[in-house]
Design goal:
This protein is about 40% helix and about 15% strand. It is of the alpha/beta class. The strands form three sheets. The chain has a seven-stranded mixed sheet with strand order 4-10-9-8-7-5-6, with helices on both faces. A four-stranded mixed sheet has the order 1-2-3-12. Strand 1 and strand 2 form a beta hairpin. It is globular. The structure holds pyridoxal-5'-phosphate.
């Protein structure tokens, strides 16, 4: 065995000792509500397909139609010959949804954050290392993009606009370009950033506000437009409420042109394939008209949150379709996940380093495919006294 292999093995064993080892579990997607694991059907509470669009006929048909008409691959990067004319229509629809002058479609959300942030924070172009003020609980891909840019993030306490204001104030005299970086809805907590206050601070301090709207696009905001109204640059993905894959940046035309010339993840990566573009296009047609579905999902989540809180569970600051049951220790989250599985619900325990130490949780996501009876049975499952007691309420989801 090469020396590196024994190190990897020791690393894995260390994770297992701390109940932090991850495994890939084979699942079969039966429909938007149900997954089959090991021959048993479960209600899927771990999917980000909030509008149940990944099994929507319109998306599946347009994906199949575009595969038949345009092939299964795009053949090259968008800058070589992969810039199929299909992109222009999709980008126009994204720009309209986000009320921005232009949009640029990229590959995955992770790749977009990794590559776009690295380009936007490029000190050789900006003339100085930028000051990047970032929520400390931003998604891993955003931290990765900052790392790739070689900049040091100035992290503010989660969702704490006052702390952000303080940090901006401390750098008042520094003339370096400044950016503020936040998610709109936080993926593991389901809480919403104080975006109005953050946008006001951005204007007052002449900072460019970048919002990752991954978990709001399609499911929140007017016509499913998300929650990024005050942002200068919006990043988002098609992999959650929009039901397929791929990502976008909505911005000024200048930013878009700059990214086409400087963003490695766009320049050196093959363009998305036609079937994926077909699903994206169909989702963008459907989303503005899905107000009733958005209201339904919000109602389901509120019903569950109220019930879980009444049972003594800590749901953190969740205010959206994402509801965590914060347990604390990794083994408590694993136990709760196991209990839910026994009752026919599939929900993934989320442990550090995905969430801060001491805040391991089971993250539940409600979608248009769930029913009120699913919610009630789920509450019964977590209340079942034959099982271990529910996690004790915690004072705060995120110790500062
Ligand atoms: C806030 C946020 N940004 C980006 C991503 C990555 O998106 P994708 O799954 O399309 O790579 C995720 C999803 O995990 C996310 O939660």
């Amino acid at each position: 065995m090469a020396g590196s292999e024994s190190r990897y093995q020791a690393f894995l064993e260390g994770l297992a000792r701390e109940n932090l080892r991850r495994e890939l579990v084979d699942v079969e997607a039966v429909d938007a509500r149900t997954i089959r694991v090991g021959g048993r059907d479960y209600v899927n509470l771990a999917s980000n397909d909030y509008l149940a669009l990944r099994f929507h006929k319109a998306l599946m048909e347009r994906a199949a139609e575009w595969a038949k008409r345009y092939g299964t691959g795009s053949g090259a990067s968008r800058l070589v010959t992969g810039n199929l004319d299909l992109f222009a229509g999709i980008e126009a629809k994204v720009a309209r949804l986000k009320s921005k002058p232009s949009a640029l479609v990229m590959a995955s959300g992770f790749q977009t954050n990794a590559a776009v942030l690295a380009a936007l924070f490029d000190r050789t172009v900006l003339g100085a290392e930028p000051l990047v003020f970032a929520d400390r609980l931003n998604h891993a891909s955003m931290h990765f993009g900052c790392k790739a840019a070689g900049i040091r993030e100035i992290r503010y306490r989660h969702g704490d606009a006052a702390h952000l204001g303080e940090l901006l104030g401390q750098h008042q005299g520094d003339r370096s370009p400044r950016f503020i970086l936040t998610e709109s809805v936080f993926s593991m907590d389901g809480d919403v950033a104080p975006l109005e206050e953050i946008a006001r601070l951005a204007r007052a301090h002449e900072a460019c506000l970048i919002v990752d709207d991954a978990h709001a696009t399609g499911i929140l905001g007017e016509g499913g437009s998300g929650l990024s109204d005050g942002a200068d640059i919006v990043i988002g993905t098609f992999s959650k409420a929009l039901g397929s894959f791929g990502a976008y940046v909505a911005s000024s035309a200048t930013t878009r042109n700059y990214l086409i010339n400087r963003c490695s993840g766009l320049i050196y990566s093959t363009a998305l394939p036609p079937p994926v573009l077909g699903a994206m296009d169909a989702a963008l047609d459907l989303v503005p008209g899905m107000d009733a579905d958005r209201a339904y999902v919000a109602k389901l989540a509120a019903r569950f949150r109220a019930g879980a809180q009444a049972l003594g569970y800590d749901t953190g600051a969740s205010a959206t379709q994402i509801v965590p049951l914060i347990c604390g220790a990794p083994e408590s989250a694993l136990d709760l996940g196991e209990r839910l599985r026994k009752s026919g619900f599939w929900a993934t325990p989320i442990r550090p380093p995905t969430v801060p130490k001491g805040t391991a949780r089971v993250r539940l996501a409600f979608t248009r495919a769930h029913t009120e009876s699913d919610v009630d049975l789920l509450l019964e499952a977590i209340a079942d006294t034959a099982n271990p007691a529910p996690a004790q309420p915690r004072a705060r989801a995120h110790p500062a």
